[in-house]
Amino acid sequence: MWYVMKALILAIAVVSLSACSLIDPLVYKINIPQGNFIEQRDVDELRVGMSREQVKFVLGTPVVDNSFRNEDWVYMYRMKPGRGDVTVREFRVHFDDDLLADISGDFDKPEQFDVPLID
């Protein structure tokens, strides 16, 4: 009788644990965005020689603030969907004498980037 009770408890435990894997696809999981969402059209507005304020107006305040390298701003974006792969994007802006000098990262450099804005 004791063996039957042990087997019944074990069977219930196995069925209970396997039910978690069956229910998981039915559970709604939210998307979790973090950082600065930047699109290529935002990057296309950047021009060499823009001030820090102008870059901040176009892209927003950078997520990463480096006290030791104030001439570089880093914009990070991470999207963890409820299902699927995590997306990570990084975009760097480099200043010389408080003016935009170069950009790099996961976006294409605009064709008009080297043409400064007219004051």
TrEMBL record:
<comment type="function">
    <text>Part of the outer membrane protein assembly complex, which is involved in assembly and insertion of beta-barrel proteins into the outer membrane.</text>
</comment>
<dbReference type="InterPro" id="IPR026592">
    <property type="entry name" value="BamE"/>
</dbReference>
<dbReference type="GO" id="GO:1990063">
    <property type="term" value="C:Bam protein complex"/>
</dbReference>
<keyword id="KW-0564">Palmitate</keyword>
<dbReference type="InterPro" id="IPR007450">
    <property type="entry name" value="BamE_dom"/>
</dbReference>
<feature type="domain" description="Outer membrane protein assembly factor BamE">
    <location>
        <begin position="35"/>
        <end position="103"/>
    </location>
</feature>
<protein>
    <recommendedName>
        <fullName>Outer membrane protein assembly factor BamE</fullName>
    </recommendedName>
</protein>
<comment type="subunit">
    <text>Part of the Bam complex.</text>
</comment>
<dbReference type="Pfam" id="PF04355">
    <property type="entry name" value="BamE"/>
</dbReference>
<dbReference type="GO" id="GO:0030674">
    <property type="term" value="F:protein-macromolecule adaptor activity"/>
</dbReference>
<comment type="similarity">
    <text>Belongs to the BamE family.</text>
</comment>
<keyword id="KW-0998">Cell outer membrane</keyword>
<keyword id="KW-0472">Membrane</keyword>
<dbReference type="GO" id="GO:0051205">
    <property type="term" value="P:protein insertion into membrane"/>
</dbReference>
<dbReference type="GO" id="GO:0043165">
    <property type="term" value="P:Gram-negative-bacterium-type cell outer membrane assembly"/>
</dbReference>
<dbReference type="InterPro" id="IPR037873">
    <property type="entry name" value="BamE-like"/>
</dbReference>
<keyword id="KW-0732">Signal</keyword>
<keyword id="KW-0449">Lipoprotein</keyword>
